[in-house]
Specification:
Length: 280
């Protein structure tokens, strides 16, 4: 496994791989890897001959009041795990490498990026799409693999790739969960023991909502009830809603496919999750 920090080294290596006719998959991460990330690498290895994993804590997707400074950075541990997974190349650029002095260009996907996390975290998705666009330009992958836990992020990146005519297949990998249903996340480690015991209620609530909706329940009424129940248990909800799984627009009454999206805080820790469901 090779580890490179410079764009020139990355480009040169990948040019060599393409000259041998190898297909390339990219797994973008911010490090502090857990089993969910490793499943993305496993999927990438199934898809392509050569797998690139990027590790970069992207400052432009964090607001001033968010946790950029305390976001866990565990590069040595991450590299050991990626070596065990037999990733081919790990790209670990500096901020200056991806945002050269005087950078003034942004990539922004409107509409689909505006509700949910786009509303509660202004500017977040502009940072995401800009850095992912930079990674796509550098790596020029055939495939890019993202987790479905960040459902809106995946939808936004798919929209960007379609709109900008990028010849990249965007792959969504199912969310990895702990044995009690909590979605794996780097932020789970911020939870206190008591909060960690409460956190699986998020996924349990999503499952109950999906079942009730499939049985004919009204999406808005169901979300109102679940919101009240979670709030009573100590959760502070940013949002909880049914949406169209492709556009993320409000769900039509006759819809047969849906995604339920949630973001909630336990103390200072913001957790997100989702569940796709269908009627009929």
């Amino acid at each position: 496994m090779q580890v490179v920090q410079l764009n020139s080294a990355l480009i040169g290596n990948l040019r060599h791989q393409r000259s041998k006719g190898q297909s390339i998959a990219l797994v973008p991460t911010m490090g502090n890897l857990h089993q969910g990330h490793l499943q993305l690498v496993k999927r990438a290895k199934q898809l392509a001959d050569f797998v690139v994993v990027s590790i970069f804590v992207n400052p432009t997707q964090f607001a001033a009041h968010e946790d950029l400074d305390r976001y866990p950075r565990t590069l040595e541990q991450d590299l050991r795990q990626l070596a065990e997974m037999e990733a081919d190349l790990v790209y670990t650029p500096s901020v200056e490498e991806l945002y050269p002095a005087g950078s003034q260009t942004w990539v922004e996907t409107l509409g689909i990026s505006e509700p949910f996390c786009g509303s509660s975290r202004p500017g977040h998705f502009r940072g995401v799409t800009t850095v992912v666009n930079k990674l796509f330009n550098l790596v020029q992958p055939d495939y890019a693999v993202f987790g479905k836990k960040d459902y809106q992020q995946l939808a936004v990146i798919r929209q960007m790739a379609r709109d900008l005519l990028m010849p990249i297949e965007i792959i969504g990998q199912d969310t990895e969960r702990d044995s009690d249903g909590l979605a794996l996340s780097s932020r789970n480690q911020y939870l206190s023991p008591d909060q960690r015991q409460l956190a699986p209620m998020i996924y349990l609530s999503l499952q109950q909502l999906a079942t009730a909706w499939q049985q004919g329940g009204d999406a808005d009424d169901l979300c109102g009830q679940a919101n009240a129940e979670l709030t009573a248990q100590g959760f502070d909800l940013d949002y909880l809603a049914f949406a169209d799984p492709l556009s993320l627009q409000p769900l039509a009454p006759e819809a047969q496919q849906a995604v339920i999206l949630i973001a909630a805080r336990l103390g200072s820790t913001r957790l997100i999750d989702n569940l796709e469901c269908s009627r009929g």
